[in-house]
Specification:
The complex is a heterodimer of chains A (302) and B (276).
Chain A (H helix, E strand, L loop, with lengths): L11 H36 L1 E2 L9 E2 L3 H7 L2 H34 L4 H13 L2 H12 L20 H28 L4 H9 L4 H29 L3 H6 L9 H11 L3 H26 L4 H7 L1
Antiparallel strand pairs in A: 1-2
Helix pairs in contact in A: 1-11, 2-11, 3-6, 3-8, 4-6, 6-8, 7-8, 8-11, 10-11
Chain B lengths: L4 H29 L19 H7 L2 H34 L5 H13 L3 H14 L5 H25 L4 H8 L4 H30 L2 H5 L9 H6 L11 H31 L6
Helix pairs in contact in B: 1-11, 2-11, 3-6, 3-8, 4-6, 6-8, 6-11, 7-8, 8-11
Classes of the chains: A mainly alpha (302), B mainly alpha (276).
């Protein structure tokens, strides 16, 4: 980016500051650009080709044929709806559970530091590790939870129960993150306001729903956006828990299977592009509907 | 406090519920890793017979040890580079006035939300062409990319809070610009850098998708991916014990970080996300 060299009222100091800033930001910006923008453009190119690594000789341009193939494939749509279902249900549960957890962490009178530390464990633990924990817990014979089910039940091999376990694993692992974001929102609610409401005779419920919640709205929306987009890329839990069997694969899982299992770069890239577009649409809707702004711009408005 | 003992009891119950939520699934894996092979299938939460055999077995497994070395090496290098690049950018965002600042913040936010699977197919092909597939740099590069937004957000909000007048004051007292930075500002910035480093390392340590897609051997495969390939030392052996023991081993560093740096992790995770 070259700066205009006209006789603008930019002092030398100002120009030097800009130059320094650009040099400081360039490496980070360049890395992010090269490792995300370039591959996604390359994915678009690959998605327009017939390109199966098992049959490299048959490589050729096929226009939008791959998109046609994926968008009329019932496995793709199944994975798509499974992903939407898991995202919607787990984010909804996380919001309620996360709020309870945030209130507990924020308000507890006993061992506040210890509780906040413990809550970080599910957040920090490797997803694959947690997923194995849940897998063995629900494996008949091995698991302590499977023992609670009727004899002969195999929860991980039946679709409804497998989806429920995937959601359980996802919720357990990510609710703490939601709770931390919400706790930061709770800290923005002035105590005086709550006291005043209390003096006016508002019950704890009324205080929560009419004072705390409205003031927390920005924090809630940011937490929802972060978690929705994160949940949409769910992969690790499903890979370990069911491997995507019995129709429990998410879009990430089937895209991975097409690439690594099937070595089909064309179809795999088509799915990559479609997932990218879906995520872009979700963020766009969030931002349009709720006016969420990025941290930097919020800072500026303050 | 109104209510006195009753209120405290209620909070104690709440605390216990939260502790149970966080700990029971972890304790279950620990318990599993301590069971003897003949008691794996007893379904008991607490081991009936205890053994450390699973741990010995897992450390005798060259694939796992190699995976652990890969995880540590790749995690540390990616963290270091992301920290250097992120600090530079965060300093500019927090301290300097320049056009395109909002663009950079927005772009970082986009990267943070980017669906990683969308990069797997093209990166798989690009890295194969460039000879980066199944190498340390092949994983380090995407890790840096996805860690950068984290470091930029954490550090820029941290650097904003630093009293920069101190730097000026030190210069007035005769310190060189380098001394002013190194002896006054650097110590103040250190906690923020530690926070960013921990969050970045946890992210790299946790990754599974890139680790299984961009590797094909134990050259660069990290520990979580290695574990998912465990099959037991013979085809008749059940890998449950080894998987549980390996799982516990890779959880230990995270628990240590969390115990030592709880406050900083909390502030780092929430910085940037909620500002108002």
């Amino acid at each position: 980016m070259s700066l205009p060299r006209e006789r603008r009222p930019i002092s030398d100091e100002k120009a030097a500051e800009r130059r320094l800033a650009l040099w400081l930001c360039a490496p980070a910006a360049l890395v992010m650009l090269v490792v995300t923008a370039w591959p996604i453009l390359y994915a678009v190119l690959l998605s327009l080709q017939r390109y199966d690594l098992r049959f490299p000789d048959e490589r050729g341009w096929v226009g939008l044929a791959n998109y046609g193939a994926v968008l009329t494939d019932r496995f793709w749509w199944n994975a798509f709806f499974v992903t939407v279902f898991i995202t919607a249900v787990s984010v909804a549960i996380e919001l309620v559970l996360g709020m309870l957890l945030a209130l507990a962490m924020y308000r507890t009178l006993i061992a506040r530091g210890a509780i906040r530390t413990l809550v970080l464990i599910p957040y920090g633990i490797v997803t694959v590790v947690a997923a194995y924990g849940w897998k063995y817990a629900w494996t008949p014979g091995t698991g302590w939870l499977a023992g609670l089910l009727p004899e002969g039940a195999a929860p991980l091999t039946e679709r409804p129960s497998a989806l429920a376990i995937i959601i359980l694993a996802e919720v357990w692992k990510t609710t703490p993150f939601m709770a931390l974001l919400l706790m930061a929102g709770l800290a923005l609610v002035p105590e005086d306001l709550l006291k005043a409401a209390s003096l006016d005779g508002a019950s704890p419920w009324q205080r929560f729903f009419h004072v705390t919640l409205p003031l927390m709205k920005p924090a809630i929306l940011v937490a929802l956006l972060f978690r929705t987009l994160d949940a949409f890329r769910i992969f690790d839990n499903i890979y370990i828990l069911t491997g995507g069997a019995t129709g429990t694969g998410s879009v990430s899982v089937i895209a991975y299977r097409n690439l690594i299992g099937g070595l089909n770069l064309g179809i795999g890239s088509t799915m990559s592009v479609l997932i990218f577009l879906t995520v872009a649409i979700i963020s766009f809707l969030f931002i349009k509907a709720f006016g969420i702004s990025s941290p930097g711009t919020q800072e500026a408005k303050r | 406090m109104r209510g006195g003992r009753g209120v405290l009891t209620r909070w104690l119950i709440v605390d216990l519920l939260v502790a149970a939520y966080a700990l029971i699934p972890v304790l279950w894996i620990v318990s599993l890793s301590l069971k003897t092979p003949d008691t794996f299938t007893d379904g008991s939460f607490i081991p009936r017979r205890w053994t450390l055999e699973n741990y010995r077995g897992v450390f005798d497994n060259p694939d796992f040890v190699r995976g652990l070395i890969n995880s540590i090496g790749i995690g540390l290098i990616a963290t270091l580079i992301a920290l250097v690049l992120g600090t530079m950018a965060a300093y500019a965002i927090a301290r300097l006035d320049f056009p395109g600042k909002n663009l950079l913040v927005g772009a970082s936010l986009l990267v943070a939300m980017f669906p990683q699977i969308s990069l797997v197919s093209p990166l798989f092909q690009i890295e194969r062409t460039l000879g980066l597939f199944d190498t340390w740099p092949g994983l380090i590069i995407p890790y840096i990319t996805f860690a950068l937004p984290l470091t930029i957000f954490t550090l820029s909000s941290f650097l904003r809070e630093i009293p920069w007048e101190l730097e000026q004051a030190a210069k007035m007292d005769g310190a060189t610009p380098f001394q002013a930075f190194w002896q006054v500002i650097a110590p103040l910035a250190a906690p923020g850098m530690v926070t960013a480093a921990i969050l970045t390392f946890i992210f790299c340590w946790n990754d599974f998708l890139f680790a299984i897609s961009l590797t094909s051997s134990d050259r660069a495969r990290t520990a979580p991916a290695t574990i998912s390939f465990f099959t037991g030392s013979s085809q008749f052996e059940d890998p449950t014990g080894s998987i549980a023991a390996a799982a516990v081993i890779i959880t230990v560093p995270i628990i240590v970080f969390v115990l030592l740096f709880q406050r900083r992790i909390v502030s780092g995770l929430t910085s940037g996300a909620v500002k108002g």
